[in-house]
Amino acid sequence: MNYTDRYLRDIANYSAIDVMLADVAVRIQLSPTDYQRAVDHYHAIYEWIERDTSPLCGLVLDFYTQGGFAIGATVARHATDDEFDIDVMAQLSCRTDVDPELVLSTLDEAIRAESGSRYHDKADRKTRCSTVYYDGMHLDVTPTVRVIGTNEKTGLIFHSKPADPREPKLALYANPHGFAQWFIQQTPPDQNFGAFFEKRSLDYDRSRMALLEKRADAVPVPDHCPAYHKSRAVIALQLIKRWRNLAYDKRHANRRLPPSVLLAFYVASHTNNTASLAEELSFQVESTLAIVQTAHNQGKKVFARNPMCQDDILTDRWPEDLSDQAVFIRELADFAAKLRRLRGDISLPEMQRILEDLFGEKPARSAVKDHVQRVAKDVGSAGTRLMPGRAAIPAAVAGGAAAPSNALSTPSHRFFGDHPDDIPKRR
Amino acid sequence: MTYRSVDEQDAEIRRLFPDFRLAAHGDWIGVWEGQVRPASKTYTIRIVYFRRRFFGGWYLSNHYVTVHVVDPLIGKTMRDGDDLPHIYWNDRAPDWPALCLWDPDEMFWDPEMSIATTIIPWTSEWLLFFEYWQISGEFLGPGRHPRRRRNACPKPLETTDPATRARRERIRNDEFHRIGRKTGVFGSYLSMGAALRDCSLQLFSPSSKDAISAEILLPATSILSSGLQREEYSHSAWERA
Prior knowledge:
Chain A contains 13 helices and eleven strands. Chain A is of the alpha+beta class. In chain A, strands 1, 2, 3, 4, 5, 6 and 7 form a seven-stranded mixed β-sheet that branches. A two-stranded antiparallel sheet of chain A has the order 8-9. In chain A, helix 8 (232-251) packs antiparallel against helix 9 and helix 11 (322-342) packs antiparallel against helix 12 (348-359). Chain B is an alpha+beta fold. In chain B, 29% of the residues lie in helices and 16% in strands. In chain B, the strands form three sheets. Chain B has a four-stranded antiparallel β-sheet. Chain B has a three-stranded antiparallel β-sheet with strand order 4-5-9, with helices on one face. Chains A and B meet through helix 12 and helix 13 of A and strand 7 and helix 2 of B.
């Protein structure tokens, strides 16, 4: 692939922490290969719900993605596995005053079907959706009924929990599609950063697939995957979601998570203010902290609504009370402090420790080691490229064939060592 | 290709690394200090360059170029029980090892080469691998690190011929004073080290703030004649002129 010198000069200026954060994001996101698998599952479940013998045959008017998958911000749920949530909406032909339980149970019946069928043992009924489990990911299918006379795709979603009769049955306004479109519009990718992140994602996926090449369902990784041409804001959101998942897993397992859609709303509301990924992430965390802290100081729960649907309340289930909010504030403040440290004069050991703490051991260690190995490969082969000034090793171009014209090329060499008296003398 | 003068090396260093400064300058010696930042941590390094190592019958046993990390002192960060690879051990000042940037079996750095395009970048690489070594105990940079020979001293050939010994003593004395006149420092090897500690050059101590004994300077720079043991250096012959 050919890159322009302008592009290479731009990415060569990315700091080490910018590249490490991007590489951590590459390792916690849905990979391009798994993204394609998710798309295949999405099509398959749609066809299944619409099959001739389905109770919803002919009643599915629209089927579309929502949530993290729709905005490219899907991340692994836990530190110990690579489980991804894929969210889809099934717009059904139905009256708006339908019994919520009827809609939810009919969808569940359509998915599970008879005993022995393809999804019968892989599906699970939830309060607002049905979940279908696959290897490494699950699809949450949420039924919706369109409300005529509102913005495109604004509709009702339903809430019902038959196992708990005290739980009220509800029909709630929602427009996740509109929210996703608004988010995408608010967070356009920077051309060079988008290209860099796409390449990094594909390179990592290739190295991962090389290890799995004997797997029956292994497929070649494409040269391009536009879905990975992401903005810094999206990467920042992914890192924030990952941090939240780990922090709540570790310290607040019994509390409800601050919802992803609320985090996405805050990120999209404060984008386009920074020039680097580390700066973007730091700014986003500080901005979110400021909003939640302000509400908390006034003794109020934070409140937000979908900009594309005023009746779609993003904070309807979180925070339940001020203690939820106080926990989030404490965690955010700690996150912000660690990010400030990461952006300072910091050694690789400390950087790795903080990255492990925030985003998990596995992706942090892999990202740091991968960078050092790339440089080692350069040192032993064609030589490294360094930036004049402080002899910084540009992490974004290390290990690659192309180098910017302003980088200093150094001859390859090998290190040695011992007591000087042991060195063969030459004259 | 001729050996690069200190001024020529300095010009190229300043062109590529403008913050480096020439801390000491002589006809055949240059000392630079400056900062490198391989990833996210900044290090101050000192480069000592000898354009010449041969002076009549004498030679400096040092390499043409030597690099130390001045701040932070990397020896202090060694992992317990692990020997930091790819350094020239300084047993008397373990915090102050010289970096081993090339394998003399494959190439030998000489003053035809540019410090700016080899030594400084290689130092930056070394420091990146050093940082990762602190995490994992692995030095991922390519190279080899022969087993350390602790407390092993070279045993140069001795001569018992009084005439030869006298001739070597005379040459050594003359050469030493010639070097002393160039650097402005005279004395015995030990007192020369002590004088250097206080002089403006500060070539071989980690920091001008740190007190450092002449003893620990010995491995950093040594002026040897071939075939003579260090013990043979006559303190009385090298007293201040």
